[in-house]
């Protein structure tokens, strides 16, 4: 009987390449043994954090319409076990000063720098009503 040869694997990091908040790590495994130095390369990608996908916009709705609640509906809230999110949006009545208009279903994170995540629907609406226009909204797509 001939003695069996073991295959040993060892990994070494070739380099780390940075792309904003995500990076790519290349790992090369060298196999020793029967195949005579077989090389296998894998690339692992780290997913972007959800905070990199936050959208910010500055909007006003004009005095003729009334308050923002007539233009943007805020739904959800802590009493329902949800984050506040944007409901129906009347885009024709809004003026966008910067950024992208939030679409229905976007999670509402901040209003003029005041965090609203974790607040009840009533408290979220009170924060929105507190500020004069234009207001800055920070939102993120759900499930990101």
From TrEMBL:
Protein's cellular compartments: Cell membrane
Domain PDZ residues, every copy: 104-143
Residues making up the signal peptide according to the UniProt record: none
GO cellular component terms given for this protein: cell-cell junction; cytoplasm; plasma membrane
Biological processes annotated in GO: signal transduction
Gene3D superfamilies: 2.30.42.10
Membrane protein topology class: Peripheral membrane protein
Keywords of the record: Cell membrane, Membrane
InterPro entries from the UniProt entry: PDZ (IPR001478), PDZ_sf (IPR036034)
Official protein name in the record: PDZ domain-containing protein
Organism: Knipowitschia caucasica (Caucasian dwarf goby)
């Amino acid at each position: 009987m001939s003695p069996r040869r073991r295959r040993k694997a060892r990994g070494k990091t070739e380099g780390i390449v940075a792309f904003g908040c995500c990076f790519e790590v290349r790992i090369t495994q060298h196999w020793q043994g029967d195949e005579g130095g077989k090389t296998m390369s894998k690339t692992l990608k780290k997913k972007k954090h959800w905070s990199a996908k936050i959208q910010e916009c500055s909007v006003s709705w004009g005095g003729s319409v009334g308050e923002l609640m007539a233009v943007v509906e805020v739904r959800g809230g802590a009493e329902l076990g949800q984050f506040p999110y944007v409901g129906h949006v009347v885009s024709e009545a809004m003026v966008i000063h910067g950024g992208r208009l939030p679409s229905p279903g976007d999670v509402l994170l901040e209003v003029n720098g005041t965090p609203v995540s974790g607040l009840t629907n009533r408290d979220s609406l009170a924060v929105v009503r507190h500020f004069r226009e234009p207001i800055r909204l920070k939102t993120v797509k759900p499930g990101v």
